């Protein structure tokens, strides 16, 4: 097994790590000069690549936004000639037109190593049989995990998405020990396994990511699938998955500081925020060749945690609460869809599937939550339904401080998702 990363970097002394970061940052700032966008941005700001003398000098550089990448569509951000690009992926396009990302041969190795590093951290390896249940096309989660898992010698089953019954048969027949998918799909998988009467006893590890999910969802998935569940975070612009990952402590995610320079900013002012304060994650990747970026605004909301980790791998980020543009502002109150999920999953009388609709009625924002009832709590009496509905309204109100309309739905009637879920439909703009 050839591992390309230097294991020492995980437990480096802060001064050694800072020196490595600075060396790589300087290299990155030089590399981006190959990109017209950055040449212009630097010259507009009256700065040159030599402005970086210390890590703090990064604050002198402007941010790069998703819209900039959209404007550069398709290949405007590539810093190497096209003949050195060996693969192209795109973002999922969750918030608009997908953007293109490119990789050199070396980038693909670096990326596979980052994934391998994460998987090694949670103790899976050669003896594991790994079913990768995400899209294998343009989405970075498929091939990304695939090559990382192969690198550490796992037995990889590239099952991709779809045909859930077949996926479950493979888990059973092949003795799969570890799976990777979105938490939404994991939930669906558990429902179908239950219907089929399959207990999926071989499963031990679940790696879930690509969308926000709550700790209550973690408990539900762990109970239903019999796995230990780990959160995996990444975005295509920074290679894809592998950017940050939970260690066995499962209290925040390790982001690899030798490969990614992390800042948390106030999204409104761009000011840097101290550890322990929530804001937007801004990342300067330090090891990318084909598409280096400076101070990339991920749009994702998290914070740098104040305390280091018991495992000694350095500063973590908190689990992502969502994208800053996922945050709903309803009658002036901020709500993240993950908070709604958290409340609903705690109520045994309702199932795990829900949809949220936001409308503007008579100039007022109205939130409607559709949630499936849990058949085992429903006697068939109408009075029961009213009681359950009242309970859901109250629990949502207690947490969100918001009045909602709750509609109880037949089990199995709401949509299921194979990839990233889209559970919130904001119809206010349509009016
Ligand atoms: P898109 O941004 O179009 O969805 P990607 O497929 O690159 O394209 O997805 C990256 C985004 O997915 C991240 O910026 C983040 O919003 C979300 N994401 C990925 N992993 C997680 C995670 N573990 N928790 C919360 N959100 C996540
Ligand atoms: Zn740790």
The 3D shape can be described as globular
Mean pLDDT: 94
Low-confidence stretches: none
Strand fraction band?
15-25%
Question: What's the helical proportion of residues?
Answer: 25-40%
Biggest sheet strand line-up: 4-3-5-6-7-8-9-13
Name the hetero compounds present: adenosine-5'-diphosphate, zinc ion
User: What is the chain-wise order of helices and strands?
Assistant: HHHEEHEHEHEHEHEEEEEEEEEEHEEHEE
- End-to-end distance: 58 Å
For the sheet with most strands, the description reads: 8 strands, mixed
What is the number of strand segments? 20
**What Rg is obtained from the alpha carbons, in whole angstroms?**
22 Å
Number of helices: 10
Given helix and strand content, the structural type is alpha/beta
Labels describing this entry:
431 residues, 10 helices, alpha/beta, binds zinc ion, four-stranded antiparallel beta sheet, eight-stranded mixed beta sheet
Short description:
Helix content is 29%, strand content 24%. The protein is built from ten helices and 20 strands.
Care to describe what's here?
With 431 residues, the protein is α/β, with parallel strands linked by helices. It contains 10 helices and 20 strands. Adenosine-5'-diphosphate binds next to strand 7 and strand 12.
How do the helices and strands line up, and which of them pair or pack?
Elements: H1 14-31, H2 36-45, H3 66-71, E1 87-90, E2 100-103, H4 105-121, E3 129-132, H5 140-151, E4 155-157, H6 164-174, E5 178-181, H7 183-196, E6 205-209, H8 215-225, E7 228-235, E8 240-246, E9 253-255, E10 260-265, E11 279-285, E12 296-302, E13 316-317, E14 322-323, E15 328-330, E16 333-335, H9 337-345, E17 350-361, E18 364-373, H10 382-400, E19 405-409, E20 424-426
Parallel strand pairs: 3-4, 3-5, 5-6, 6-7, 17-20, 18-19
Antiparallel strand pairs: 1-2, 7-8, 8-9, 9-13, 10-11, 11-12, 12-14, 15-16, 17-18
Adenosine-5'-diphosphate is lined by residues 91-95, 139-140, 209-212, 231-236, 298, 300, 320, 323.
